[in-house]
Specification:
The protein is α+β, with helices and mostly antiparallel strands and 96 residues long. The chain is built from 4 helices and 5 strands.
């Protein structure tokens, strides 16, 4: 992983967690994706968290500003990363 890849707007999709979790959870076969996202948001770790779906899919939950020395826009949010061949998803939660 390279910080410059995450800084490129062509590689990033910004999505509200409500819409993302339901749709993406179905596509990947990770039925509890919303719960996993909420749990990781509450207790993020620098190494992130890998999740496996039942449809031969895996993804990594991460907070870029905990991973890279250089800070990026929205880097304190939870991101979903599936490799450099796919877009990364920067998730945001509604104001609580």
């Amino acid at each position: 992983m390279n910080v410059n890849w995450f800084k490129n707007p062509d590689h990033v999709v910004y999505a509200p967690v409500e819409e993302f979790a339901g749709n993406f959870g179905k596509e990947t076969g990770i039925h509890n994706l919303r719960q996993e996202l909420d749990a990781f948001r509450a207790n993020p770790t620098p190494e992130g968290k890998n999740l496996k779906g039942i449809k031969r899919t895996s993804l990594k939950l991460m907070v870029p500003n905990m991973v890279f020395d250089e800070k990026i826009d929205m880097g304190d949010s939870v991101w979903v990363y599936m490799g450099e061949n796919y877009e990364a998803y920067c998730l945001y939660w509604p104001q609580e």
